[in-house]
């Protein structure tokens, strides 16, 4: 029988101290009875003999040192799970906010998840199509992968996240079950409303589970939101055999909430004021992606984070890069040229891409085309640097071709409409059309057989800024 305690010893921001407690456990959930109708939840984050430190999820407003009744539940944070969650919207701690009533289910799971036995993990294969050429063609997302997006304040990562939710699929020929778990942390109300409306109007809401933690919600709530989202994803993937794509935005808000709570606890700060366990907390989230032997489902993650001051060496992107298998970097200069999505190709990579593309997955020429586009675009940077010194007119003919290639690559391959959903064939064909601007002897990363099959000369029209294949019969 649970013991109920009357009164609190101390209230400090989102934390409360309770003394005289028996048999309390770390991570145990606590219920606060404020009035007959109002309850709040908390979590024990530290225990010293008969004293416990409790994080209050919904904030400490309304709690009283004298009259608050506290009950220890004896179990960690759990969430009710069901396939009925698809198409529903929840707040940061898993309570429905769409007016459709609570989730009734006998299935409850600890939000911290169960560690995956490394022996049971399968190597990620097969790609997830986002419909975005710069991702599908050059930094392909593989099922079971964790591939973060590094953005910055003011860059269109919210629009990109919404587009991925609208367009993501397992491919045209797949009959496997696919769904998306979308978790937003610390977003403003208008951004949350944008996500809601976009998903509803595009008709994808029925296969999306959405968790929204708003900027004015308590900071502590932010720490539990991604865990609830990933617990939902694991249930749908490993118990319902679905392929789940988890989008977490913004991981920076999660980390700043961790820093704020750590400061309230009086912990000694590490780099940039973040707690020393930032790495392990991020790893705890990111490593909940993967494929398990004997189960048809998978969990794939796209965490989105905003780099403070566009600094890729900041602790959050720095540690994220250590844990994940690549990154997609958004570029402010491309955004300034009105190129959407402003994906900076050269610092972006997908380390698992090579094992989920090519013949039998996408198309036989995919890897060679990606390698050649990377190589040619790197040479564009050299040509632009040279042109800034000696002037464009003094460049060699081949350098001038690289400048044209670079301009068209940014406009037609990286750039696409937010409503444009390209299949992999379209993406690769655009790549060949752009490579056709360059002489065949410049394409040294592509197998000769593939060149014979796909390579055609292209013509650039400066009046319309378009590229088309030259007439092969002329």
UniProtKB/TrEMBL annotation:
* Limits of the ATPase F1/V1/A1 complex alpha/beta subunit N-terminal domain: 9-65
Q: Keyword Isomerase: yes or no? A: no
UniProt keywords (A-Z) are:
ATP synthesis, Hydrogen ion transport, Ion transport, Transport
The highest taxon in the source lineage is Bacteria
Q: Which CDD domains match?
A: ATP-synt_V_A-type_beta_C, ATP-synt_V_A-type_beta_N, V_A-ATPase_B
Gene Ontology BP annotations: proton motive force-driven plasma membrane ATP synthesis
What residue stretches are annotated with the ATP synthase A/B type C-terminal domain?
A: 355-455
Give the Gene Ontology MF terms in alphabetical order: ATP binding; proton-transporting ATP synthase activity, rotational mechanism; proton-transporting ATPase activity, rotational mechanism
The record's comment on protein family reads: Belongs to the ATPase alpha/beta chains family.
Stated role: Produces ATP from ADP in the presence of a proton gradient across the membrane. The V-type beta chain is a regulatory subunit.
**Protein name, entry field:** V-type ATP synthase beta chain
The scientific name of the source species is Bilifractor porci
Task: Give the gene symbol.
Answer: atpB
